[in-house]
Amino acid sequence: MKKIRRRSLRQNNWDQGMAGYLFLLPALVSLLVFLIGPILYAFYISFFHFSFLDPQNKKFAGLSNYIHLFSDPEFLRALGNTSLYTIVVVPVQTAIALFLALIVNNIRGKTFFRVAYYLPTVTSTVAVSVMFMFIFEPDGILNKLLANFGIHGPNYFNSPTFALPAIMTMAVWSSVGQFMIIYLAGLQDIPEEVYEAAELDGARGWNLLRYVTIPLLRRTTFLNVVMSMIGTFQVFDQVYVVSGGNGGPLDSTLSVVLDIFNKGFKTMQMGYASAMAFVLFGIILILTLLQNLFLGKEED
To answer: Which residues form the ABC transmembrane type-1 domain (predicted)?
Structure first.
């Protein structure tokens, strides 16, 4: 009798387990077909001279695609532009997001300000890019405002000096709300007792922020910095719209992802473009691990 019960229990557990896997099957299949499969195939063709126009005549290239990257002036320029873009945007974005979160967390009408600051984040990047193109036109809003002070503004998006900083400004404005919301969640997770204890010890104002709030937001800051860094290294939409897809003027707005797109779909060097994509992945992975080393661990 006990053996029959055990068999029945095992059969029920097996049936329940199989039912669970069947429910997961559609998601697993779509993940394999549309994500894991293409990633593995892209890694495979990164070792070939490959074009989708003539896939049967691919030629094995070994590591030559990866080696050529570091002598390709376009890729090096794109990597330099993207690195500069990341170095400027990430800290500015993080600092402004923290500043806004501190303000919004302590004023009335929090919901209104949360929505107002978060709205640009959910707005189409193409729409935001077109709006900023109007703002930064030679006779746009910004130059008209500067003209009131006797300043003659440049043609921003047609200037190698000002094109990338203008895109940086657009990126900060359009995405700072997302990181502000994350900081707000982190601030509301800090117990009030911690602030009360710190105030009893004489902490006030800046000292309270420096020695209590910022250290307790360490993990939140790590999350924001990593997400911001990944987003900036993958910048594509803004530079494509502003430059018309060529990274101009004089490659001053050429990003790594835009260069990958041009190599893969314009010049049909899909193997080379795949190698560029995996090098970009390696750079982001290394930088994320380094940030985890310095920001990701809680202090004792």
So the answer is: 79-291
